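Need ATP-dependent RNA helicase's 3D structure for a figure. Predict it.
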Amino acid sequence: MLLSVKKSWESDEIGALILLPTRELAQQVSEVVEKFTKDNGLTKFTMISGPKKVDKDVKDFQGQGGNILIATPGRLESIIGKIPEIKKQFKTLEVLVLDECDRFIDLGFQKSVSEILPVLPKQRRTGLFSATQAKEIEEMVKFGLRNPIHLNVTDTALMSSSTTGKTENGEEIGIASPDTLTNHYTIVPADQKLCALVEFIRSKPDAKILVFFSSCACVEYFSNVLKHVLKKRKLFAVYGKKKFTREKEIAAFKKAAKSVMFSTDMLARGIDIEDIDWVIQFDIPRQSSWFLHRSGRTARAGKQGDSLLLLTPQQEAYIQFLEKYEKVTLDKAKIPTLTVLKAEDLRKKIVKMATNDRAYLVDGTAAFISFIRAYSKHDCKVVCTMKELDIVGHAHAYGLLRMPRLMETKDRDLTEFKRSDVDTSAIKFQDHAREKRRLAEREKKSRELEAGANRKDDDEEGEGEETKKPMKGRKRSAKEIKEEQAKKKKMDKERARENQELESDTKLLQKFKRGRLTRSELNNLV
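Structure prediction for ATP-dependent RNA helicase:
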């Protein structure tokens, strides 16, 4: 398309901009674009968040330029702020592409996109690409496209007839679920869920497997725990906190046969990894439409693939929910080697790990809390309610020593939880640096509490005889009681006024720090 506009492009002329929601997807697209620009005189430049600093990107772009710009919204927004002249370079823009555009809403990039679009020429070709029919895409169409045309692209040769649905307007659409994909589900008690995952992975020794969890904390915790359980398998983990090592993990997983990857939903879209044999969904997705995105990581390019969804008895109605609203058919499967004894042995092993290293205690609790919070926000609360969730069973599967206090579980009966007798405050981190920080924080907290207690004692001593409680045995007169009540009321009013002033001053200080007030305005108001 760019070469049809003109045969030769200067290095400082931007002809196409491709925006992508994640650095991994941007890197993947960059590698593909590289193949197309090799022999036709066009150049490309990639701007993504990561170890490379914004200033380095600015310097490189000013020196190299690029006819095709591939970027994540946040990084491009930062660079536009640092290179005002880039706005002139965008005048030659012919094509704007937003891939996986519904993810821009999920990841909170609306502001960045809104800042970028006014810089671009209005006369351009714009393409919004997504595998879903999300309502949010219609909002993006409104401010991103002029004279929009909707195209529905499917490979009818590979599409399953059972996976068709309808849009809100009644238009029939195809959902990307190929005939070569077989979806399975299994029902296991909550306390056996982790053991079920372990036993299933062990039953597929030659398979490349991708496992989805509901949160970063869950991926981090279970990947660390299961490396001591699945010692014969190569395990990888990808989640948001590992921003700067994700590319290496994905690249290593692509190359490693018979390996297992633990991931959040960041790998459910866009990233192309060949030869995945099985996709396992340990937790139900936050949105039911993501089920197809997850399972679609296998059975790619006409190859055979399978997916397995792990459910508890309380979640069995989710199968009918998927069949009705996502038009997905699932076959029931069993894990023959799963037993109550194996699940209990695994729980005890994790408890022992947490007893010997505080990292497992802390990370396990964080993972459990994140799972509960994620579960409370999914979109099928009618069939998978928080009220019916087996809290105790899941806590046992996580190998918790203590049940954390949560708003979501405060009215639940948790008496069946197997609480450990170990004094958790005495458990140390095996990581010496982490343990040193913990002890320092504990010492600091202890000093603060002691200082607070001393201040309280001083306050009580300074109140004077008239404010002290009367000694027992002495009957106070009505006048004394009335005077004491009046003084107390006056003191309460004074404290309330002081607290109100303090709160007001704090808010003004916050406005000053955010740049919403000048120093002179602050001084006048305080």
